[in-house]
Write a structure and sequence with these properties.
The radius of gyration is 21 Å and the shape is elongated. The longest helix has 39 residues. The protein has one domain. Helix content is 84%, strand content 0%. The two termini are 36 Å apart. It is an all-alpha fold.
Length: 250
């Protein structure tokens, strides 16, 4: 019962934070500097990790598919498998997990520290709403940068699959044939669905991490506990939302 109560309280406080943050959406042009700073943190600093992981995920997909599909003489369709897998599922989910682990944990730690050391209370005293200054720029940046990261991840993953398909002896598919099949079976709607997923996942991760950070009480130990809780809750929500969003989009 206590766990259910805690879940409901967390959901309620997150919803309240979302409503307050949306109410300050009109102030975003006056916070352009903070918005750019968050775009840099969420997007640019995460890009190298996304590129590396996407490349090897696409490579592994092509390699595993090649070994399996060559038994049936269908290895020429590897491009479609890699293209659809990256665009629909692996791209947005992988990027969201990276954002939760790298960016979400940093957000939770920063806001929890500000809350514990009474910096948030100081903002309230100066009549500066934390939702406007600390949350809204991060939410707006997540809506812009997480889909961009997912799209770049898709492209890099496709390229990785093409390299493996060409230089693995058992597959040996030319890049022209690989990308021709990929273009034939991977449509714009598939890529768009993946970008919508990435946008939803990124927004939810940032919102949850902001809420947990701002509701931290206690001392340094509670800061660490809040970071752990923020990452765990974010990962669970990503997988749960992935199921329901996939049901809706398909």
């Amino acid at each position: 019962m206590k766990q259910i109560t805690a879940i409901l309280e967390g959901f309620g406080s997150t919803l309240q934070l979302l409503i307050r943050s949306i109410g300050y959406a009109g102030t975003l042009p006056r916070q352009w500097g903070r918005f750019i700073e968050q775009c840099y943190m969420i997007g640019y600093t995460t890009l190298p990790i996304v590129a590396i992981l996407s490349f090897f995920i696409g490579s592994v997909l092509a390699l595993q598919a090649g070994y399996s599909m060559q038994n049936f003489g269908t290895q020429q369709f590897i491009g479609s498998l890699v293209g659809l897998s990256m665009a629909r599922e692996l791209g947005p989910v992988m990027v969201a997990i990276l954002v939760a682990g790298r960016v979400g944990s940093a957000i939770a730690a920063e806001l929890a520290s500000m809350k514990v050391y009474q910096e948030v209370d100081a903002l309230v005293t100066m009549n500066i709403p934390p939702a406007r200054m600390l949350v809204m720029p991060r939410l707006a940046a997540s809506l812009v940068m997480v889909p961009v990261l997912a799209l770049i991840g898709d492209l890099v993953g496709w390229f990785g699959g093409a390299l493996v398909s060409k230089y693995t002896a058992i597959i040996s598919i030319e890049p022209e044939a690989y990308f021709a099949v990929l273009r034939h079976y991977t449509h714009f709607k598939d890529v768009l669905n993946g970008l919508v997923k990435a946008e939803i996942f990124g927004f939810v991760v940032v919102l949850v991490c902001c809420n947990i950070g701002l509701n931290t009480r206690g001392g340094p130990r509670e800061i660490g506990a809040s970071v752990t809780r923020a990452v765990v809750v974010s990962l669970i929500l990503i997988l749960v939302l992935d199921y329901f969003v996939t049901q809706i989009l398909t």
